[in-house]
Amino acid sequence: MDIFIVCASVIIIIFVLIMWVASTYNKIQILAIRINEAEANIDSVLRKRFDLLNKSIDVIKEHTENENVLESIVKLRSKKLSNFELDRMLYDGIKEFCKYKEQFPKLKVNETFMKIDIALGESEAEIQALRKYYNDIITDYNKMVKSFPANIVAILFKFKSKLYFDGKNMDDDIINDFKL
């Protein structure tokens, strides 16, 4: 009878442990799926911003008679970039776009240019909200991956902590500290 109780206890403990591992694994997976969804939404807005800046090139060339307009955007056409890199490059393009808007008053009265300017402003609000949502999910994910006892499951299944989408340059010290 004692062996039966010991065996039953061991089986129950193993079963509870397996259920805990499965539950923790599922929680981490759900967060990983949410991260992927957030990345897809960010990607969509970034592509929209790229398209808007791309459309503005012809309008700016027409009103400035400058052939080297938004060179940073032209260079992006042939590159395959991560969302982090694309976001940084698009900000450079938006800064250049704004310089043209300030330097050439003719552009401010062009309907197409103004529509692009408004759409870029709206996309800025979208990207800010999506970036916050993404970072909130990353915080929850990183807590799961790094905190005990969930980190045991993370180690077993090779879940790694992820970087925040903060718009910082990859050369920043904080980001490099994470890479070490």
* Shape designation: rod-shaped
By CATH reckoning, the class would read Mainly Alpha
Number of domains: 1
The largest β sheet comes out as:
none
Strand content: under 5%
Count up the helices: 7
Task: Throw out a few tags for this protein.
180 residues; mainly alpha; de novo design (two linked rop proteins); disordered C terminus
Helices, strands, pairings?
Elements lengths: L1 H63 L6 H6 L6 H21 L1 H4 L2 H36 L3 H7 L16 H7 L1
In short:
It is built from seven helices and no strands. By secondary structure, the protein is mainly alpha-helical.
Describe this structure in words.
The chain is an all-alpha fold. The chain has a single domain, classed as de novo design (two linked rop proteins), CATH 1.20.1440.20. Helix content is 80%, strand content 0%. The chain has seven helices and no strands.
